UniProtKB/TrEMBL annotation:
Top-level taxon: Bacteria
Cofactor(s) required, per the database record: thiamine diphosphate
Keywords: Oxidoreductase, Thiamine pyrophosphate
Protein name from the UniProt record: 3-methyl-2-oxobutanoate dehydrogenase (2-methylpropanoyl-transferring)
Amino acid sequence: MCRVSRELSNVIRRDVLTGRAKFGVSDDGKELYQVAMARAIKNGDWRADYYRGHTLLLALEIASVEDILAQLYADAKEDPFSVGRSMVGHHATPFVDHDGNWLDHLAGFNISSATSPTAGQMARGLGLAFASKKYRSGEGLPSGFSDNGNEIAWTEIGDASTSEGVFWETLNAAGVLQVPMITTVVDDGFGISVPVEKQTTKGSISKALAGLKEEKGETGGIEIHHVHGWDYPALTALYPSLASRVRATHRAAVVHLTQLTQPNGHSTSGSHERYKSKERLAWEKEFDCLVQFRHWMIATGVAEASDLDEIDKRAKKEVMAARKNAWDRLNNRLKKRRNELVALFPTSDPSIEIYNKYKEAINRLDMPNISELIDEMRRLRLQLGQTPLLPQLQEWLRDARRELKTDMGSHLLSETPKSPVRLPALPPKTEEGQPTVPAYELLQKYFTAKFENNPALYAFGEDVGHIGDVNQGFAGLQLKFGEDRIFDTGIREWSIVGQAMGMSMRGLRPIVEIQYLDYIFYALPLLTDDIATLRWRTGGTQACPLIVRTRGHRLEGIWHSGSYLAPLINSLRGIHLCVPRNMTQAAGMYNTLLQGDDPAIVIEVLNGYRLHETVPQNLTDFRVPLGVPECLRPGTDLTIVTYGACVKICLEAAELLASRGIDAEVIDVQTLMPFDLEHRLADHLSRTNRLLIVDEDAPGGTSAFIRQQILEVQEGYQHLDGAVKTLTAAMHRPPYGDDGDYAGKPQVMDVVEASFEVVEF
Ligand SMILES: Cc1ncc(C[n+]2csc(CCOP(=O)(O)OP(=O)(O)O)c2C)c(N)n1
């Protein structure tokens, strides 16, 4: 297996250097530990690794050499890990089907889709391990996900990447939480060209981590081991025994593997001879784990040198045969499509010369990717000028573009019957004269009923457990449902959300709290790189339906105003972004999201918790649909589009405008992503012909997004009788204090005056 893996690494390198593929990174020098690890892995376990690690897949027979090469060649039809969307080395196994049903997670080893940003996998791994803990202690949880919490989350990380903050944050949390997570640090002495001495204190991550180690007489630490990555007996002695301990005790562990090598260098982006000394390179040759393994096998009589030579030859043959299959399969498919296209070309036509020129160009293509065929056809269409492309070629072009779009872009959000976007509105039921309650009490009632009905629901974050969140939405709920369901965490946004991500991948439904919107940026790497892309980058075979609950808008001060949403809109395509104007709307959105299978962020209005609202009689069932704006005040003179805390301001402004004879309609977009799926806003604009967009994001932020959606996507420009205005916060961050707020954010009078400008234009 080791030899097959090494040959595969060599092929990956060669295929990149000879132009068959664009980028290669692989396992050379890091095979042996994975074979030892394979012995300790059980069905139901999870992996959160980095951009290497095909040896383990081969050892566990989860994937074939052809599968791995299909990813290298970006073969969208055959790459089982990422449908041609990720570079080689980013593995994944399916754990949800295309109807949105969970597969049996206990049937095999589960690989959570790997990402390139180094160390990011740590936070997800923490969550996968944490889910085991919940399955061991929880009651009434769904089956098919866990065998009493016995599953280990195996995380792997390169030595240089341990310098990232999230590595430390996660290991600290793993110690605090006591979760079954084994982190292997794969130490080859370098992070591309930078040696470990320049990366890690004392040049050793196991030494640097020593304070986390559980010493005799202590509880609450983690196990730390140090082994040479070429030492097969030590590796096989360590992994299985460590795994049984971690399964039983749920105590996390780190395995620091040193003296690993990179026979082919870090990746295909450069050669390591440039930065490694001659001595180091000579040492690497000798201490290559497979060379050492060979010495050991011969010395212990496990095999003769000639047997091993024979194995080497067989491995080479096997990999070369697989390479041929993977390449031929792709090439034959591409050539078949090319031939089908060429067969549609005319043999006689007034423009035959032009057609023939393109036919020849297409026939000359060495590797006729669909994008190249499409591009040639678009150029042909351009060159034909006034003459339309023949109908059969037009049809081909339309179908091919559709296919490419689907191959590359499907599954950004759920496309299953469980998609929350499919859920229609179910209006709240209230009666005349029903008393109102402070909004935080409405949330308490809401979450209490939800937690009673669904044992898989969890809520956690900073100050969520004991005091029930800083705004009391969960007050008293920990007492009622216990610390296991509603609990506090450390101040560590990235890994808090990672905890939720891993749980949600294993059938649990976490509502994880970021205390204030301003601090979500500490979790942004995970949200943007991992959560937002998970479903898309696995072609819909993995999902993480978690909800991030946070609060923002309308408080004061640089770091408590919660205004900036554009960075989220820009970076979180793949996550729903809900901006309820009050807590009733928030509850309706939670209802929709909890019935669905997508991740979402809900930003509650910070200064809304003490306002009074009526509790709907169908509080836990009514649904606010995603992507449907609501018109809160009809009007004929202009349309004011806004969301969140600004809704209240705009409604007040509309009253003042009415007193001066201007009839403004006010529309709450409700969810920024998805945005107005039925294009209702353009329809409103067609009646008022004037548009003002109000929010408290920076100029050119969310208001620019809304403008682009209405004017460009919905073609609202056709209905305009005047200039469109966006009223936003100031360029600087919102200062603290009344004057700062007045100068920094749109006020009622700003909306009134901006409306006059729009109407009088
Ligand atoms: C967050 C982040 N920063 C930088 C990079 C670019 N990069 C890719 S691999 C690498 C070195 C990683 O070294 P190490 O963690 O030791 O793992 P190795 O590749 O040596 O196994 C760097 C800097 C990245 N992928 N992610």
